[in-house]
Amino acid sequence: MSNSDDPLSLFIERLKGSPFFGPLSEDGLAFLASRAKKRDYQAGAIIFGEGEPSTGLYWLQSGTLKAVKYAASGREQILHLINPGQTFNEVGAFTTLPNPASVVALVDSLVWHIPGDSIRQLIHQDPMFGQLIINVLSERLRNSVDLIEDLSLRPVVSRLSRLILDEAAGDTLDRPAWYTQNELAARLGTVTDVVQRALRKLEDDQLIQVERRQILIVDRDELERLAA
Question: Scanning 30, 32, 34, 119, which has the fewest C-beta atoms within 10 Å of its C-beta?
């Protein structure tokens, strides 16, 4: 069997292309890959739940996940989306304290789990790797502060305008099958009826055009003004 057919070698090659793992030495990559476990999840599956002990670091090979908090009422707040090539649950590299949020598969996804004790062992051997994790955690903290600011200080129309601008490729925001108005509401910290009204307002004001699988930006300047 050639290296190209070896799942472990393929995993190492994928890690080399990651900004998170790429700077590691060959030995470091091989060490992590030898301890990683591949797991397949169907759409809707819970990768881990809020309150469960953190068991390690995860890396998403394919699919899309959401990190989410649930209220007792069942309402959810999406903290961020996780796309292929990204790590998540970096806190599990340092502690076994309970997970602060749940992670759920939005589509069929392939995830690699690297045990926390293996991560901590590599950090002792390669302090630069610990710095990489700290950098990612710092970015997560900044994103959380930005989310709190948005939810506290900006109206839904403003938050929706910013999300469309941030996620559009050019003037088009593609909406996969999972990108429902319920999911959009959970990202904006509101409910579906409010999102529907906000979308309708932006469309009535001729700032966007809403289609089944796309949102098209019609007036970028005015959308930028609303998002500011």
Answer: 34
Q: What is the pLDDT of residues 173-182, one digit of tens each?
A: 999 989 999 9
Residue 78 contacts residue 186 (beta carbons within 8 Å): yes
Task: Say which residue the tokens 């999300």 belong to.
Answer: 163
Q: Which CATH superfamily is domain 3-152 in?
A: Jelly Rolls (2.60.120.10)
**End-to-end Cα, the chain, rounded Å:** 56
Residues 17 and 149: their CA atoms lie apart, in Å, by: 33
- Considering the domain delimited by 155-227, tell me its CATH architecture: Orthogonal Bundle (1.10)
Q: Tell me how far CA of residue 115 lies from CA of 35, 44, 121, in angstroms.
A: 7, 23, 10
Ranges of each domain in the chain: 3-152, 155-227
pTM over 0.90, yes/no: no
CB atoms within 10 A of CB 98: 12
